[in-house]
Amino acid sequence: MTITIIGLGLIGGSLALSLRQHGLADRLIGVEAYPPYARRALELGLVDEIEADLSAAVALAGLVIVAVPVDALLTVLPQVLDLLTDQQVVIDVGSTKSNLLAAVAGHPRRGRFVAAHPMAGTEYSGPDAAVRGLFEGKTLVICDAAASDADAVATVEALFRALPMRVLHLGGAEHDLHTAYVSHISHLTSFALALTVLEKEQRGEQRIFDLAGGGFASTVRLAKSAPATWVPIFRQNRENLLDVLDEHLSQLRKLRELLAGEDYAGLTAQLEQANEIRKIIP
Amino acid sequence: MTITIIGLGLIGGSLALSLRQHGLADRLIGVEAYPPYARRALELGLVDEIEADLSAAVALAGLVIVAVPVDALLTVLPQVLDLLTDQQVVIDVGSTKSNLLAAVAGHPRRGRFVAAHPMAGTEYSGPDAAVRGLFEGKTLVICDAAASDADAVATVEALFRALPMRVLHLGGAEHDLHTAYVSHISHLTSFALALTVLEKEQRGEQRIFDLAGGGFASTVRLAKSAPATWVPIFRQNRENLLDVLDEHLSQLRKLRELLAGEDYAGLTAQLEQANEIRKIIP
User: Fold this and answer.
1) Which residues contact B201 (CB under 8 A, 6 or more apart)?
2) Are strands A139-143 and A166-170 parallel, antiparallel or unpaired?
3) ipTM exceeds 0.85
4) Which of B198, B216, B253 sits opposite A276 (nearest CB)?
5) By CA distance, what is A209's nearest residue in B?
6) Which structural domains are found in chain B, ordered by start?
7) Which pTM does this prediction carry?
8) Is A213 in contact with B121 (Cβ distance < 8 A)?
9) Which of B190, B194, B271 faces A230 most closely, judged by CB atoms?
């Protein structure tokens, strides 16, 4: 199958590597609006060719993967659907779904679109961030599959199961709620933690470098993530994110009060409760 | 040299492995108040023998390493100093220093004590958590070295440089300030994040498991840490921690206001500023 990938960053580029590695694409066509990324994706061999014309790139493909930031998706996905025949399939790989599903709800080719979110990533971006095996053993969430044609869903499931990934079906609204809890809030708190430490260590950057152990590195890692990726995600999942952020602020204030009031038994009880996360993330 | 390690958990056990691996101890004696840990440390071969009597264990050693939680340190370290001769050296490996340094300031054997903090760890605890190579390439902070005898400092530096570790000298108060920023706050926010998600996903544990990618796992990893280790650290570094926690709450509230007010240019500017952490943690 010929596969066209629109957007050759971390996710688009890593998917190209995985699809090629598993022999799932005999021809990979890339569409990339940012010329240095297009050039670099070719140099790295992520795709076989770059096609500047969107309609030509779509016309050649059995499957189109739109891997652009979630704000751009709202424009690009309808454009691709306008170009699509009944024999082709298009997926997104975005981190938010409700707005996107609403944006294409009435489209005559809606059935050819499968809303997909591979739950994997790193804090890096661009074609140089593409890594082999990024999706292996991870979960692909497919949203509102009932609104997609059955053959389109089957094609997408078979392809991602071969990477291999597990497939999970969720409603779009449900997806956005849960990703706010298990992904978006982690990114927001990591950004805030980096800002906190940078503020406190304004004249002590060398000290952070000397002292930072693995714990610090792992909690601030996500703060290296690209604002161009994450601001649109935060924007589109704003209500869920504000809700979970308020819960987080309340939990932090609770820990603060226990510490300020020197209630160490209470603090211990809270930390023991937090330890329950071991049952979920072993 | 015969080395006695008091406390055979993550840090004491991992040090035992490192010292043995680099041929730095020809005999390792363990002291461990919790019988199941003592038994397990022997089974794992972390130490050659367990000595129930503290004075016997200290008498045999050229170097004593006290690797107990920081609250217990305030009792155990003076006991060890009471038993020490001028030819022996004792170190702690605790995460807070000001209280400990104050507790032994007037001790007649103060010079034989070197306050040390190897900046390394994991979220696991007990002898089974001991891992080879935990300290390799990391930083050992030595605090208030001027209050220790020069030969004692030289012995400790030579030993840890051989692991190999880098040695950094800091004042005790300065150490506690910086570790609040680069270690203690990361743990506190991770505990709070776990509590947030557990609260929000009360009936959806399977969903967290299905959806959690690497980002979530890395930010909540520290929430698995032992309360018996961390509550005493938070307690002894309470003032610095409250100060950095207040800064963190203020940064989180700032991000919240930008998102609530839909100021996406402002939010982008904040995230770009957080990206500066890349310069420090590459």
Assistant:
1) A178, A181, A182, B207, B208
2) parallel
3) yes
4) B198
5) B280
6) 2-171 (3.40.50.720), 175-279 (1.10.3660.10)
7) 0.93
8) yes
9) B271
